[in-house]
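Letters spell out the chain; backbone shape is given numerically. Take this protein:
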Amino acid sequence: MSDSGLVWHYTKHEVIEKILISHELRAADIAGLNDATELKLGNKRVRQAFKAMKKSWDYYDNTAPEIDFKELKDTLEGAGGDLYHGSAFVTCFSRESDDTEQWQKYAGANGFAIAIPRGVYLPVVGTELTVPSRAPYVEEFPFRWLELVYTKPEQLELATRAIWEIHHGEDEGAYVDARHDAEDNFGSIFRDRGRSGYVDAVASIKNRHFFREREVRYAVTGPSNPAAIHPNLVNAFTHVRITGAESDPFSTSWHTHDPAFYQAAPSNLPIVKIRVGPGNDFATEKARLRPLLDANGYSSVKLARSSSPFR
């Protein structure tokens, strides 16, 4: 496989061995990402898109859907922070295989970059609840790859989509609730679907100053089984553990509706290549990693040098 089909996860020196032995990557709560301004920018673009939508709305167009803009504004303001906590978990990758800024920020000079094919399916390590739970909602697409956008026009387009996602969810939820008993709470399914689409859209917006990172994220819906959610030792946020698919870890042809959410035990990750950070001695790390790779089922993984000047 050529490097063009790969995405790279930058990680610190002491973590590489844990990943290879455990066959797991961490997906972090989307509310606790490294760049704390990301969600603020996403919410800002939503406010701008909402203002533009309201200003340009044709109230005389009988074919347009009915919108209560005050109600929609209240919904969006409520969605500005609360929806993110525990709603989705992400693992960050880059299309850049040897980027000096990412060595500096995320891995360190003596870190590593792990390459996997973009588009693979990585299930959550865990099991289904024995008693089914209807909350939180696991939507139609519990696993998805998100491409981040950096330019304002693209971000406003994405923010507009986010507004429609949450509007349709609220609208459909109210319609369903009106036709069922209140205790059934069937409308929550549609509201949660809209909120999930909103979170994905807003969380795909990133400051243009980070454009060089060319970031791609693998997103997982928050698990319904709390046992699959683990605390972090260094902050108040949580994470889930994702792993390679037992059936075929390298397959990118799976359909988003099909795969099981959980996998009871870890399986080999679809690692194709590992780039050794620029501050490492390549020969030393090759001698250390090659036996570790062979012992854990990664014999085909290639090791590559970094050409970054960062030390």
In short: DSSP finds seven helices and twelve strands in the chain. Confidence is low (pLDDT under 50) at residues 134-138. The two ends are 29 Å apart (CA to CA).
